[in-house]
Amino acid sequence: MHPALQGLLTIVIGVGGCVGYFYFSNVLLDRVIFPARGRDMGRNINRANMVRPWLFLFPAIFALGLYLAYPVAETLRLSLTDRAAGGAFVGLANYQQMMAEPKFWEALRNNFMWLLIVPAAATGFGLLAAQLTDRIRWGNLAKSLIFMPMAISFVGAGVIWKLVYEQRPVDVEQIGVLNAIYLALGGAEPQTWMTIPLWNSIFLMVVLVWIQTGFAMVILSAALRGIPEETVEAAIIDGAGPFQIFFKIKVPQIMGTIMVVWTTITLVVLKVFDIVFAMTNGQWETQVLANYMFDKLFSANDWGVGSASAMIIMLLVTPILAWNVYNARKEMR
Amino acid sequence: MKHALMTGAAALALTASMAQAEQVTVFGPWLGPDQANVEKVLAGFAAASGHDVRYVGSDSFEQQVMVDAEAGSAPNVAAFPQPGLAAGMAARGFLTPLADGTGDWIRENYAAGQSWVDLGTYAGADGNKALYGFFYKIDVKSLVWYSPENFEDAGYEVPTTMEELKALTDQIVADGETPWCIGLGSGGATGWPATDWVEDMMLRTQPPEVYDQWVSNEIKFDDPRVIAAIEEFGAFARNDDYVAGGAGVVASTDFRDSPKGMFSSPPQCYMHRQASFIPAFFPEGNIVGEDSDFFYFPAYAGKDLGTPVLGAGTVWGITNENQAAHDLIAYLQTPKAHEDWMALKGFLTPYKGVNPDAFGDPTLRKMNDILLGATTFRFDGSDLMPGGVGAGSFWTGMVDYAGGKSAADVAAEIQSSWDALK
Amino acid sequence: MDNIAGSKSSLTWAVHISVAVLVFLWLFPTVGLFVSSFRTSDQIATSGWWKAMFPSVQNLQLRAKAPELQVETDGLYVIEGNLFAEDGRDQTEISVYGISSRAIDAFRPAETAELRKGGTITVEANGDYLMEHTEAFRGSRGQRVFVTAEIPPEFTLTNYDTVLGKDVVKRLVIYFAAAMIFAFVLRYVVRDRAGIMVAALPTSGGLALLLLLILVFGLSTGTVEGAQTGDSMAKAFFSTLTVTIPATIIPILVAAFAAYALAWMDFPGRALLIAIIVGLLVVPLQLALIPLLKLHLQVGIGKGYLGVWLAHTGFGLPLAIYLLRNYMAGLPRDIIENAKVDGATDFQIFVRIILPLSFPALASFAIFQFLWTWNDLLVAKVFLIDATGETTVMTNAIVELLGTRGGNWEILATAAFVSIAVPLIVFFAMQKYLVRGLLAGSVK
Question: Domain end: B333, B355, B373, which one?
């Protein structure tokens, strides 16, 4: 039980430390530094209230700065230097080297394909599932079953889908579902799905769509419920059919939410590399940027190019970042 | 039992040096049964020296050791499956030179000692060459595995020349069966089994000097001689009639799965070319020498290149210096360290001072005979090339080749990735 | 009107059917894994898992007894027995058999085959065989016999014994049943009392009993021979818990305070800070690994639990702050203003009002972070797992298993299912909170 006890102890210390920090720093501020009494009472209260937000924010800002902002800056620096030459500044040489590699362009092309297909498919299926499950009694059960893949690790999902795509020689019975169906539908011989360029990328995307659809469904389902009854009723009275109601009334009403879901999944697509890593490791023209970066950083040990490709990913997420920031600021007003 | 062990250990500790007991961490690529084996050897060291030894294996050894070394949290001793990786680490100053006299010991006690010293000597961060790596545990790669009973059923004879092997291959096809099982899949390392094929073919079509020049890139990867060797491999792997499942599945079949086809009912193939470790992935209960056996991957009788053997091995280096790490390397120079693993499975050694009767398994002796009968012994070339090629573009290039790209295109791509590293 | 009602009901049917198809598609792959984990390697290799409920026709390679067991009577050497018994299998019906790998279906049961080395063998449909020869049989191994037989469906717990250690599943089931009964009894005992603590008593009592049983009686009765996993899986399980729980709680605390400040406190630069946090949501994690590991080692944290907690905290914070701020900003303004008028400090407002009201969002993020840390491999590999071998996590143990047992689907399926079992339980138990918090973050 040693590790369990140790874990328990550290939980107590960690949590106690956090609570203690917030409590005692507040006490310190109110009682010792700017006491709310005596001559400067009014001024002290004001000053304490100026400082307090930063007390509340400090641990978060510290951790964010250290764990996310600093690495971004460090990566930018690495992408402009050459480690073999003792960290000398080499300008854009790493970027040039990367641009000269066909694998990079393959990764970029695949990434764009992922960006087009996965968010669209996941949002589409999610919307469909949300609309359909809202209308039936066992809808909640159906929802949690569709949502379930969210809880499965990429390692687990990799094994699950490898079994689906498994192929056996032609004269042996197939144990992969996809090949069994393919043969039953009249396919000539079992296919090695993971090695057919283009198709294999699509089969990898299916895994991510499978995982993300539940997320889209849950959020869109709530948005659909938020549509005022009267709007829909008015449309029915006007003689609109169910499809018209859905596409002309409901979808436009929840467009904002659809965009949120779409961009969130886009972010996942840009960052995710586990699926590709586990199932093909970028072979057979399935490379994507995140896996390319991992390859360069940890296999080829070329930090310059690895960091450069990381910056490309950052560049690709920038529009979404800007859109997120713009929305956040709009909400503030 | 425990008591006896304790007193034995105490006695050994007394007889060993009175040096301070330290902790020594060993990081290696072995998992599963091999992990148990290496732990037995290390237990012997712990008992003899009194040090506290911990072994950790990892499936992604290459990445993990690099990340740890970069970050400064390296283990004390690492057992590299690829000398190229060790050389890279040495060049960045992550390895400590081995104690003085180690090189002399290797020269004296290992068969072809000088070549092992050369393979373990790298340039350090300061550019000075020194002995950084000690070879321990060798694999022979030029082996073809088969099921003797299936050969018997079909009336096939074990071929002794490449011409005979090719004739046998055609014979099996003519009989309506499939001769070979070939699988290149290996997760992140997919493609490496093909590099062994190409290297073996290189040794069977070109003199060893050309092989050495190829490995050091003195002759280019897209040299016609290299392309010819790749195509020799393609003659087997890209022929739909030769490979179980057709040429299309070669790249995606897991190398661990691939040999199982020889033992299925009915057999999906008759032969499988792979290194000495592969029986670990044969079906449960399969006994080498009974259910399965191997023969030397033969050379062309018409080429007069002798009997070349391709091999590999793990090179042990000190990644985080302490006295115990040096003691461990010294311990590996005792016959006991070798004989302990010889008594188990999957261990060959060039150490001349061991008692060959220590082999626990007659097939290991047979493999050692192949090793000793070699007129040329060459180390796995992809392990000697820079990591970006030998553990990168060479692998992926072979996958592309098995998938239908032309050998010339693949070779040119690998060469350009090599140029990019310079 | 009839017309409309009719089309309405057919539409309802269409909805039911489409939802059923969707659920089926989404569930199908996972069920495949689950079913496969209860099948033997032979079965997995020879028939699709969807046929697991039906008997399958398999080609088997069986062996007669070794020649050293032959019996000589009147100059006739005889070996006899049952092929299935020799292999430790249940008897089934043989349809055809053969003695050469080239012709595995050459003979019908009860037909006699000439052995190549002399002598004959006769195999009956039930697997009984009789080998006869006028000279002694030679060789070290028994005659190979290839049979084609219909193997009945069979499910086994062996795979779980191999991956987790002997009897772990059986014991877990027994302990769990005991805990359920105990919880049920508790609920009956306290049925008339009211209050939050009382309501939680049956569940927590049952959980406590479950833990107690595990601690007192243990889970495993030993490891299966040749399996390297029993012990290390249990260790990995506790290690994973040790990583997961603090890595879930600490970021919540830190984020809750920050989210309150961003939602309800006025200070210069607030909008900018929110924008930055939203921006940090998109940073790919891979690029943070090496700079941070270096930093950890420089300041002396090294590799270990502390490092991995801090890393998970850092990586989880943007989402936590974002979700919690959105939720808190939606709380009714007058409650907070009334409290301020009554003279409550920000700290008091936060602890007494905001935290309890934000429970759904907190729970939702907790589940998210739990799933993410439990399923994580990369962060653990870089910040936790070092060369001493003391620390590992479930995902890593499974990936290593994939490396050593790559082709063994039964082991892969079982290991993968074990790794997803805990997140699935947490997910199904807590999903209503997960959904609520998700909504807080995205729908306004």
Answer: B373
Q: What is the mean pLDDT of residues C187-213?
A: 74
pLDDT top residue among B232 and B20: B232
Do both B270 and B296 map to the same domain? yes
Residue C251: asked if its preceding bond is cis (omega within 30°), the reply is: no
- Per-residue pLDDT, averaged over B96-110, amounts to 89
Instruction: Check B403 against A167: CB less than 8 A apart.
Output: no
Give C276→chain B minimum CA distance, Å: 29
| Interface contact B392-A300, CB threshold 8 A | yes
The pLDDT of residue B316 is: 93
Size of interface A-B (CB pairs under 8 A): 62
Q: Is the pLDDT of residue B6 over 50?
A: no
C326-365 pLDDT per residue, tens: 788 878 888 888 888 887 777 788 888 888 888 878 888 8
Structure tokens at B23: 């902790």
Q: Average pLDDT, stretch A15-40? A: 77
How many domains are there within chain A? 2
Closest to B149 (Cβ–Cβ): which among C144, C399, C407? C144
Verify that A24 and A122 share a domain, yes or no. Answer: no
Please tell me which residue, A31 or B56, carries the higher pLDDT value: B56
Structural domain total, chain B: 2
Contact present, B351 and B338 (Cβ < 8 Å): yes
Strands of the C56-63 sheet, one edge to the other: C56-63, C144-151, C94-98
Same-domain check for residues A121 and A55: no
CATH number given to C228-442: 1.10.3720.10
- The CA-atom distances, in angstroms, between C70 and each of A197, C83, C110, C142 are 58, 15, 21, 10
Question: Do the domain assignments include residue A85?
Answer: no
Closest CA to C79 of C134, C130, C139: C130
Q: Are residues A22 and A171 in the same domain?
A: no
Q: Beta strand pairing status for C120-123 and C128-133?
A: antiparallel
Q: Which domain holds residue B26?
A: 2-140+312-373
pLDDT at C126 over 50: yes
Query: What's the CATH number where B368 sits?
Result: 3.40.190.10
Lowest model confidence (mean pLDDT) among A139-143, B203-207, C61-65, C381-385 = C381-385
Distance CA A268, CA A261 (A): 11
Same domain, B156 and B189: yes
Q: Does C294 touch chain B (CB under 8 A)?
A: yes
Phi, psi of B80 (to 5 degrees): -80, 130
C393: nearest Cα among C358, C363, C367, C418? C418
Residues of C in contact with B55 (CB under 8 A): 389
Q: Are C27 and C50 contacting, i.e. CB atoms less than 8 angstroms apart?
A: no
N-term to C-term CA, chain A: 53
Of A276-290, B61-75, B295-309, C409-423, highest mean pLDDT: B295-309
User: Are A69 and C280 in contact (CB < 8 Å)?
Assistant: yes
Does pLDDT of B9 surpass 70? Answer: no
Q: Which domain holds residue A59?
A: 2-79
- Do B279 and B153 share a structural domain? yes
pLDDT computed for residue C4 by the predictor: 46
What is the pTM for the complete model shown? 0.79
Looking at residue A226, its pLDDT comes to: 79
